[in-house]
Each structure stands twice: as C-alpha cells, then as structure tokens.
Amino acid sequence: MSVPPAVGQIALTVLLVAAAGVVLSENRRMIILSLGAQYVATAGLASMSIGGGIASVKVVAGLSATAIIALSYWTESFERVEGSLLGSPIGRPFKAMALALVWVAAWGLTREGMPGIPQLDGAAAIGAALLAMSGLLQIGLFEDPLRAGVGIAALLSGFEIAYVAMEQSLAVLALLAGVHLGLAMVVVYLHGLEAQARGTA
Predict the structure, then answer these.
(1) Structure confidence by residue, pLDDT tens digits, 167-189
(2) Residue 107 CB: number of other CB atoms within 10 A?
(3) What residues does each domain of the chain span?
C-alpha cells in the first residue's frame, strides 16, 4: 500500500523534535518520551519503502522497547540526568550547537538523495542520515546508559531506514526488531548495575 508523501514530511518533523529532546533534555522522562517519538517517526519514514502495514510492526517493537526502559526508570521518578564522557556536565548551548552541526551535515549529505542508495531519497534519506549521525553524537558525548542506549537505537534506526529501501526482507525486519528489544534489556541491566553501585557506595 502506497504512503502519501506528506507522511514522510510529518515523520521527519517529528524526528527533528525527538532528536532535540533526546540530546538537549536533562530529564529522563523527556528522553524516554523522545525515544518513543523517534521510533514512531522511524516507522513513518520506513513506510515510504515498505508500506504502512509492515511499518506498523516497527512501531509496536519500538514502543515495546521504550516501555521496557520506562518501567526500569519508573521508581526513580525520572530525576535529572547528566553524564558525559568529558567528565563534567555538558552545557545545553554546546549540545545545541553540536546537534545543529549534525543536522546541517545530514541535510548536506542527503539533499540530493542518499549516496549509493538511489532508492532512498527525500525525507527518508535525510531522516536516515539524521538518525545515524545524531546517534553517533549521543554515543560520543554521553556515558549514561540511557543516553548511550538511545544513541545506539538512533544509529540502528537510521540504518534500518536505508536498509529497507534496498531489501524488504521480513526476516531481517523481525531480526532488527529483536535487536531493539535486546538493546532495551541491556539498558535496563546496565541501569540496574549503576543503581546497585550507587547503593553500595
């Protein structure tokens, strides 16, 4: 079933807002909500290649992964979180500047389509690049398990959008959905270790 082009534009807009929420927010509630929005936007962009029916499976898998993470952090009241690999909190202006550079780079790389993937163009190409590059940004800046996990999820989601444009294999899509659920479990496990370490400190 064909998907209207407007779906891609809406999904890309949601993705931009979600990426900003993940990188700029210092509150776990906002980060987790942005993760859920990121998964929905990813499915919207992927639907341009695989159709809305199959993309809905990605929505279910993504929101299930988000729910797993949210339940893990529920008892902590979603307190403020701020951890960086630089050993000190990263200011919001610096994060905003880094994210803006990522957006400009993603747009510049894909404004005429994804290099090497002619099937992927328009909003889907920009979204794939934005997800992958913002994911790398989060992995590079933050050491908190939640932020790092969301960064890896973004990187994988960007890869998925590009991959489904070339190969629409249901088996691979199911495998990727399992990877996201597994990633959520890893985030929960690392969060448990972190909480245990704080309790024994």
Answers:
(1) 777 788 888 889 999 999 999 99
(2) 13
(3) 5-200
